[in-house]
Here is the input.
Amino acid sequence: MNEFIRKDDKILLNVPYAEAYFPYDLYSDDEETASSLAVRYAEGFRIIGIFNIRFYESDQQPRDSVKLRTFSYPNMILTFPTDSTKLQLQLSPDMQPDKYLVLQYYMGDVIMSAEEVQSTSNCTKLLNMITKGKVPNTIPYDQFVGSIWEKNFDINKFDPRVPSISLQMIWSEMCRNPDNMNEPYRFIFGKGNASPYGYATGNMNNVAAATSVFSALSFERIKEKLASSINMTKSGVEQHRSPVEEVLSM
Here is the structure.
């Protein structure tokens, strides 16, 4: 049975009940801005279509009794669940507990429009999701750039004018080893025996703080970065020098 069906210009839920989980700190009750990734819109929500979801035979089933899936349409969508709530959840053993906006759908609810809405601002919003560290790690590490990021550009007819390798470098730097956030996940995955779902996504502040003292102090939140830089220096953590730092220290 297909979880979704198309009716006229809408994509509808085709199972008795479903829950979608969107990181709550990406949600805003205020009017939509250029950086908004989820806002209230009339009786529904305008959100970026990358989130975890579960499909149920009944709304009485235990939340963890069915497999966690990934809704991965990399563009802004208008969605109209029957109800919504805010919950602190750990969606899987591999994910940290987080606060989520839980969208509750019943059969026939509108998941999204079947028509693609094109706007270069949709590309900015996906980039914001990446730099905020909120991409769900149920998307395989080695497939995100090709199947999600580049598809976002295709949908919105946008040419970033950078080679794919540059996107891969950004993505590989944002993904960290969950056991050592100072280390990019590529160092683990490149050995060939790591799970494509085993990464943790860091935000720009955390990644800058974990890279080097120079990167930390040249970013934002200077008081916070001073503390992390002192700890990094005292503990002798290996630091990765940026090209800028190399030039300045010649």
The chain has two domains: 7-113, 120-248. The longest strand covers residues 44-56. The CA atoms of residues 62 and 196 lie 27 Å apart. The chain has a mean pLDDT of 85.
